[in-house]
Amino acid sequence: MSIFNDGPPIPKEDIKYIWDRFHKGDKSRTKGGGTGLGLSIARQIINKHNQTIWVESGEKGTKFTFTLEIS
Predict the structure, then answer these.
(1) By three-state DSSP, how is residue 45 classified?
(2) pLDDT of the residue at 34
């Protein structure tokens, strides 16, 4: 399953940090924004179900893909 965002891409230097708790790549969005926990929590949930999640970001947006076993 994939989720695509056609907004600005995630800079290559930030990709390795997006799963870290409290990481915010776009520092200009800190006022009134989130806590930087969402992707960390999503990854933990996916991992607890023995599944995987990964990200691809390019010029035209960002795609998060994850496996989801249906029983």
Answers:
(1) helix
(2) 72
